[in-house]
Design goal:
112 residues, mainly alpha, 2 domains, two-stranded antiparallel ribbon, 49% helix
Length: 112
C-alpha cells in the first residue's frame, strides 16, 4: 500500500497495479497511458507517505476523544472552562507536527 500511496502522491491520477510490498522486487503495471514513475522517485515519497499515515492515526484518535465529549457542546449544556480548554487543546494537537516521530510522541491532554 505504501508504494501505491507514494505513486499517488506523485501523480494523483495514476492508474496502476502494484504487486508486492518491497520497492526493489515489486511489479508495477501502468494502465491507460499513465506515465511510469521510477522506483527511486517512488521510494523518495515514502517518508511523506509515512507522515501522512501517522497524522491520519493521530487525527483518528483525536477525533474519537472529541466525539466522546461532543455532548458537552450541545445547546442545552453549559460547557465548563476546563472542558472548553480540553477540547481546544485536542483540536490544536496536530499543529506544528512535521515528522512521524513528533506524531507518534504526541501526549494527549487529560480529560477534565
Amino acid at each position: 500500500m505504501k508504494i501505491f500511496n507514494a505513486i499517488k502522491k506523485i501523480n494523483p491520477n495514476a492508474e496502476v497495479t502494484v504487486r508486492g510490498s518491497d520497492i526493489n522486487t515489486c511489479e508495477i503495471e501502468w494502465h491507460n497511458g499513465t506515465t511510469p514513475i521510477s522506483k527511486s522517485d517512488i521510494e523518495a515519497q515514502f517518508p511523506a507517505v509515512e507522515l501522512d499515515n501517522a497524522m491520519a492515526d493521530l487525527r483518528t484518535k483525536r477525533n474519537r476523544l472529541l466525539q466522546d465529549t461532543d455532548f458537552h457542546a450541545l445547546s442545552d449544556n453549559t460547557m465548563s472552562e476546563d472542558m472548553t480548554t480540553y477540547r481546544q487543546e485536542l483540536r490544536d494537537i496536530t499543529e506544528g507536527i512535521t515528522t512521524v516521530e513528533q506524531a507518534n510522541a504526541v501526549v494527549f491532554p487529560t480529560k477534565p
